Amino acid sequence: MYRDLHTPPGGSGMTLIEILAAISIASLITAAALSAYMVVAGSLQRRQARHWDEAQEALETMRRDLAACCAVPIATNIPAMQLAPDGGSNAVNNVTLSCCTAYLPEGADDILRMGVRRVRYSVQPTGGANGGPALIRESVALTGPDIRRPPESNTILRTASCLRVRVLDNETWTNQWQSTARRPLPRGAEIQVGWRTESGTNLATAWVLVPAGHSFKPPSASLRGVPSPADPRSATMQNAVPPAFAPPPPAGAADTRPPAGG
Questions:
Q1: How far, in Å, CA of 60 to CA of 77, rounded?
Q2: Are strands 133-141 and 81-85 parallel, antiparallel or unpaired?
Q3: What are the pLDDT digits (tens) for 9-24?
Q4: Phi, psi of 237 (to 5 degrees)
Q5: Entry pTM
Q6: How buried is residue 99: exposed, middle or buried, by Cβ count under 10 Å (0-12/13-18/19+)?
Q7: Which of the chain's termini has less CB crowding within 10 Å, N or C?
Q8: Phi (first) and psi of residue 204, to 5 degrees
């Protein structure tokens, strides 16, 4: 009796060709799955990068407006800034910000053409195909060359989920502000914008100084190095002029100045 040495007992098992074929099929499936994963991961990364760039541009727009905040002319009754919680939003600490900001028309470099516009930032539903909220900037010119232009409304951050703003009142941070004659503007602001992702909510933050919210007192005469009339050091300081810089005596008078090297 003879037995085929290439066939295992019972007729079960895989030949070398079958093993190689199985490895090849598994490699193809793994390569396809890895390729699909890389495509999806790359798409998500590009989307996140696009959202991040849009958030940075939105923050830069808000930063420019807040840095140029100013008190409007007395003839108008429009407050310089209003900051209040947005009661119609589900986001925690979501706010609506309105302020008056100085502007130059596009392409203008003459400060005499500067005007004042009113801007308002809020998160609103877009009503588009996605129906998600977006960060909207509304503006209308109060003075200047653009006063005849109609109000504008622009989306500066799509898929925005929240707008959080805190302003600095002396040494206290608050998310509410109403300008008054004595407190027209805060000293600074912290801005946060957020957008939803598959893994949660991302936030981008910026801080801005509001120059018009700072009051500067001119230094006194004594701080500038010039003695005031009531300063008892005045006579001493006046007599402490170096000999080399002392004025010459009148004509016919004796020179009582000490030698320059003495």
A1: 28
A2: unpaired
A3: 555 667 888 888 889 8
A4: -70, -35
A5: 0.66
A6: buried
A7: N
A8: -120, 135
